[in-house]
Structures are given as C-alpha cells and as structure tokens.
Design a protein that fits this description.
The protein is built from 5 helices and 38 strands.
Length: 728
C-alpha cells in the first residue's frame, strides 16, 4: 500500500499514541447486582447509578442491573425506588460487582402506619384527618364553637346544659387545652347553671386540631381523660379583612402580611339583649349576656425558625334570676369576668437533625360572682413554660425530650353577712415541675412504636409521680391498621378543691386502648375499645366543697366502652357526612358520692350524625346535625338509693344554610333543635316533703328549646375569591 507523505506522518502519530497511552484509560468496569425487598422479592424498575455521572441503569423483572463505567477509584452507587429509602454505597468501582442490595421501606411515605390510638387529627397536613378546621364553622350544631364541633365525635358525652368537653366517663375538668403546645388555664367563658358555656377562642385563627381522647403523648400532663391541641396558622396566604354582622353581635378581623412576618387580629362584641327581646327564654334577665373579645397573632420567620405570639382578651357580664323550687322569688345570679391569655412560642432547627421548641403562657382571670347573699371575688394568675428538643437519628428513630413548669396563684374572697365564719379569704400557690422523654421507633411502614416517660413534682403536695406511656401500631393492609396504647396519667385537684385544702395527693388514671382504623378513597372508619381505671379521686363530706369540708383521696372508679366513627365524602356527589357512636359503662365514687355509681354527667349511649350538601346551582351549602344521648342519672329522694333514676334521652336536630351572595359575601342561617324536642337536663327536688310525704320536683329544662342564628359574613382579600367558608 502506497501512502502519501501526509498520510504516512498521520499513521506514525496514531501508532505512537496507541502504543504509549495506558490501556486502562479506555477500560470499562462493569457494575452489577440485584435489588430486592427485605423478604427477598426482586424490585423491578429501580434506578441504579453512580452519583455525579451519567452512568447507570434500571433493574429488570428479576431485580438485576448491569452497566459499565469508565470511572475509577471510589465512587458512590445510588439505588432508588418509590416508597423505599434511598440506598447509598461508597466503594472502589472494582468492588461494585455482584452486589445484593436490599431496600428498606420508606417509613415517611403516605401509606405508612400512623400511631393513632385515642387520637383524632384535624388538619390539612395530617396523613389521616377525621375533621378539618373548617368543620368547626360548618357543623350545624356547633354554632362556630370548636368545642361544639368536637362534641360530634365519639368518646364525648352530651351534657347540653354545660357545654364543655366530657370525655369517656371523665368530667370536664379532666380535659386540658393547649395552644401551640402551651397550656390554656381558663379555656371557657364563664356561665351559670343550665346555660352552656363556649370556648373562648375563634376557630379562624387555627389550622390544626388534635383531639386525644386517651393514651396521649408523654409531653402532656395534668389531664386525667384527654387533651385538645390547637395550632395557630403558621403563615397566612394573603392579606384580608373579615367582617361579620350577626343576630347576636358582630366581629371584624384583619390580616397583614410582610416579607418575613404577619399580623392577624379578630375582635367581636356579643349582646343577647335584642335576641332575648325577640325570643324570650325561661330566665328573668336583669342584664342579658354581653361579651367583648379580641385576639391577635404575630408571626415572624427567621432563617431557621418561626416565632409566634398569641394574645386574647375577653370581658363578659350578665345578671339574671332563675327559678328555684325552694325559693319562690328565684335565685339572683350575676357575674363579671375579665380574662387575659398570652402565649409565645418559637420552633426551629439547630442543625445536625436537631429541632427546638420553646414557649410560655400567662393567664390572668378575675371572676366577680354574686348569688343569693353571697359575694365571691377570685383572681387566678397562672403561667406555663416549656422547652422541648427533638433529635432525628434517622427516618426510623426520633427522640423528643424536654421540661416544663406550671405556676398558679389563686386567691378568693367570700362575703355573706348572714354566715358567721372566721375565713373570708383563701387560696393557694401551686408549682409543678415536669420532665418528659419520648421515642418514636419506626421499624417499617407496617410497624411503629412510641414509648415515653413523664415525671412530675408538686411543690404544693411535695409529691413525685412517674408516668410511663406506650403505643404501637401495625398496618394490616392497604389503608387499614390496628394500634394499642397504654399510659398512666396524673392530675392535681381543681381550684374548687385546692382553694380549701392543699394536703392531698394527685389523682390518677390508667388508660388501655385498642384501635382499628381504615382509610381509603376519602372514607375513614375507626373503631376503638378502651378501659380507664381511676385511683385517689378527691372526696368530701358536704354537698359542695366548702370551708368546713373534710377532704380525702379515697375515691376510685372506672370507665370502659366502645367508640365508632365513619366519615364519607366520596360516595354521594357533593355530600359529606359522618356518623359517630359511643357506648360508655362508667362508675365512680368521688366528691360527695356515698357509693360507687354512674356519675350524673355520664350516659350509656351517644350518637351524632352530621351531613353537609354542596348545592352548586343554589350557590349554597346546607347542613344537618342530629345528636342523641341516652338518659343521665339523678337522685330521686322519693325512692331509696343514690343517683338511682334516669332522665329521658336527649334529642336535637339542627340545620344550617350558607348562601353565597357573591364570591366574598355569605348569608348564613342556623337553628338548633329545629323540631323543638322537649329535653330535660335533670330535676330539682324540694328540700322538705309535702303533706303526702313526697318531695315535689321541677324539671331542669334548657333556658330555651331552640336557638336561631343569622349572620352576614364579608371577606375583602387580595385575590378577590377568598371567603370565610372557603368551600363555596
């Protein structure tokens, strides 16, 4: 072959390069292996590649992969597949051959098991929500009160004349409420006999609610039955103004938003005088109920955290005369209350998988009460401080631990010119120190465990308590799981006891809970069985706690039952409904009870049915709620025994209708007990028998059989579409 001179020179150069450049510069190394699940099942379609390169491939039906690379030295092999944790391996490429890679399930995936025994989540960000914050204002029977909405959930007891939360055989004082993890000492507006109270706080400032009917976290204490956790909105979406004109008053709220901070406030004024003039009730009102309330939230975002400050103030007063079978002229009652609550919290990251939460609250409450010839004036100053840390060791191991302090200074003065007593003022100072630690152990997407321990010391009692708590959950199928929970819970006596006697022990319960939950396609079903055992309940030997009462910790009791909940917003177009049922078997010996018996606030059966229908053509949402509670115990002095008789069952059907006048203007109407059921809360008996030897009685009926509400709600926002129901 004859080559020209240029071609000859090129051939010489190529020959030189091929003989002098090392052979392994062009060498390819094979990367291979098999990817399987923990049980050995091969995973098809997993992505396998060297980090920072274009070299890689995917697994076949047998889970096998193989590709070549020109890279040398130590490289990082990455294997990833949806719903599994990413696998990473750093090694010399010559060692990345014939590998067996076992992927672990991603325990943070949406279908992972959830520790849910005893807990109802209500928030858009939770994996399983039985309620949304919006349900508070759209449930017909709730009248815009978050407590009223929660009374449609299983585990609660219908005590229509009270209005507070009675949970699983516990009285209302056994439930504690927290805002952003910080204790609320006076969560309800004050009231009087046979007039239900309401929660103090507006539902529009909260975006999440967690209602634990038992078995709750070691982070929370001083609650025998349940805790209610309210979380304020972290970040508003836009600036807006909300205006409400109602048949009982009005309110206005505004949100301002800046680059790293925001400020929201809401203020309201309620006056029942016009309503009572139009719809008189069974009370003789000298001064109908009036209330002024305001609350605000300031938020500030930092690079690694969020600071929030919440403050609420309200003032209420009223005066009325109520019928009394033993006092012909009736009982005059007047009340004036002022309440201030402030709450600050900070949550952020400290780096290296550490998080911190810190906060504190202060409550100042002043009640001035007058009834008959008694004048009572009490002041409570309470504070709560908490510091909590969270360490994430991995997706499977997380640790929470922290400490908190509760402080209460309570003083009360009593005056009655017709009672000769050397005691005209009394009170107490309480100081509780607590530490807690809790670990989340997530073994797989199917099995998880939470174990915790809480320790408390009371300076007032000089008592030290330790509360172990644990819960486990196992995923039985796609969308279904079972869980178990156990815990010890301690709570000190309430103010009405401690103001007279401080030489007492903490009261105690033990909770045992078995839960089954199924959630799929916008449907959720829960069934829960529980047992609570009470020890060291406070008892006294007078009709009500008083100066000369003899107090002991000799009380005890139990509560057990079954709860069922079903919610469905999928089966019927534009219809959302839920059904809850509770069976309760409870007895206790406490307060002035001479025997162990079912308490007067507990009933055996409670049923709630709530439905909402979105009618597009009418631009409306129509709602209905039905509540039933079986009869509650009362003492009939004409027969032998104590709490041996029962009232008839409670029935109430409520309706509401929200009509969209325009995108940001809503007309709202509701009526409670629309059919006017003749409900009876109990009976009052005469102190002395009549000529026939029988004690006369009168029925304790609600102040009004029905309640009507009309409101106009107007929102002014940046996008021009937001309204106070959001769903219309």
């Amino acid at each position: 072959m004859n080559l020209s001179r240029p071609h000859l020179i090129l051939a010489v150069i190529l020959t030189f390069l091929l003989t002098t450049i090392p052979y392994d510069t062009f060498a390819q190394t094979e990367i291979s292996g098999t990817v399987t699940q923990k049980n050995g099942t091969p995973i098809e379609g997993a992505n396998v590649y060297l980090d920072g390169t274009y070299d890689g491939g995917s697994t076949n039906a047998q889970g096998q992969f193989s590709f070549s690379t020109g890279e040398e030295g130590v490289q990082t092999l990455i294997v990833s597949y949806v719903t599994y944790e990413e696998f990473m391996m750093a090694a010399d490429v010559t060692q990345l051959n014939g590998l067996t890679v076992t992927l672990r399930e991603d325990v943070n995936s949406l279908d992972a098991v959830v520790l849910s025994a005893g807990t109802f989540e209500a928030g858009d960000n939770s994996k399983v929500s039985v309620l949304k914050p919006l349900d508070v204002v759209t449930t017909a029977s709730a009248l815009g009160d978050f407590v009223g909405a929660l009374q449609t959930l299983p585990g609660t007891t219908t005590v229509a004349e009270d209005g507070r939360l009675f949970v699983r055989g516990g009285d209302a004082g056994e439930t504690q409420i927290f805002i952003d993890g910080i204790r609320v000492f006076t969560p309800y507006t004050p009231s009087t006999n046979n007039i239900p109270t309401r929660g103090r706080y507006s539902p529009f400032l909260f975006d999440g609610i967690t209602f634990s009917t038992g078995g709750y976290s070691a982070e929370y204490g001083q609650a025998l039955s349940s805790v209610l956790l309210l979380n304020t909105i972290d970040e508003p979406t836009q600036e807006k103004t909300d205006i409400a004109i109602m048949s009982v008053g009005g309110s206005i709220g505004n949100t301002q938003k800046w680059e790293k901070s925001s400020l929201s406030f809401n203020t309201s004024y309620i006056n029942l005088a016009p309503y009572i003039a139009a719809f008189p009730d069974r009370n003789d009102w000298e001064k109908p109920f009036q209330a002024f309330a305001g609350e605000t939230v300031f938020r500030r975002k930092f690079d690694k955290g969020l600071f929030k400050m919440y403050a609420a103030f309200d003032a209420t007063n009223f005066e009325l005369t109520q019928e009394d079978i033993n006092i012909p002229e009736g009982v005059n009652f007047k009340l004036n209350n002022k309440n201030l609550y402030t709450n600050t919290s900070y949550s952020g990251t400290l780096g290296d998988s550490w998080k911190i939460q810190a906060g504190g609250s202060f409550t100042h409450s002043n009640n001035k009460v007058g009834f008959l010839d008694n004048e009572i004036d009490n002041i409570e100053n309470s504070a709560h401080f908490k510091l909590k840390f969270r360490k994430r060791f991995s997706n499977r191991v997380k640790l929470n631990f922290g400490a908190e302090q509760f402080l209460t200074d309570f003083n009360e003065s009593f005056d009655n010119p017709f009672i000769d007593t050397s005691i005209d003022s009394y009170g107490f100072n309480n100081n509780i120190t607590a530490v807690f630690s809790e670990a989340d152990l997530i073994f797989s997407r199917k099995f998880a465990m939470k174990v915790g321990l809480r320790a408390e010391h009371s300076q007032l009692f000089d008592k030290f308590t330790i509360s172990p708590r644990a819960s486990v959950a196992y995923k039985t199928g796609k969308g279904s799981q079972v869980s178990l929970a156990y815990g010890d819970f301690y709570q000190q006596p309430l103010n009405d006891i401690l103001k007279f006697q401080q030489d007492l022990d903490p009261q105690k319960t033990q909770h045992y809970i078995l839960n089954y939950q199924y959630s799929k396609n916008n449907r959720i079903f829960r069934a829960e069985a529980y047992r609570k055992e009470y020890k060291s309940l406070v008892m006294f030997d007078t009709q009500d706690p008083f100066f000369d009462s003899n107090f002991t910790n000799d009380g005890d009791g139990y509560a057990q039952g079954l709860d069922f909940f079903f919610r469905d917003n999928e089966s019927i177009k534009n219809v959302d409904y839920w059904i809850s049922y509770s069976y309760l078997d409870s007895e206790r010996k406490y307060r002035n009870y001479p025997i162990s018996t079912t308490p007067s606030f507990a009933n055996s059966h409670n049923l709630s049915v709530v439905g909402k229908w979105f009618i597009t053509d009418w631009k409306s949402q129509v709602g209905v709620s039905y509540q039933y509670g079986s009869g509650r115990a009362f003492t009939n002095p004409n027969d032998q025994g104590f709490l041996q008789d029962k009232t008839k069952g409670f029935n109430s059907v409520s309706f509401n209708w929200a009509y969209l006048i325009s995108q940001q203007k809503i007309l709202y109407f509701s009526v409670n007990n629309a059919f006017g059921f003749n409900n009876i809360n109990g009976y009052q008996y005469a102190n002395t028998p009549n000529t026939m030897g029988n004690f006369n009685r009168r029925a304790l009926r609600p102040a009004a059989d029905q309640f009507f509400f009309v409101g106009f709600f107007w929102t002014i926002s940046e996008d021009g579409t937001d309204n106070q129901l959001d769903t219309l």
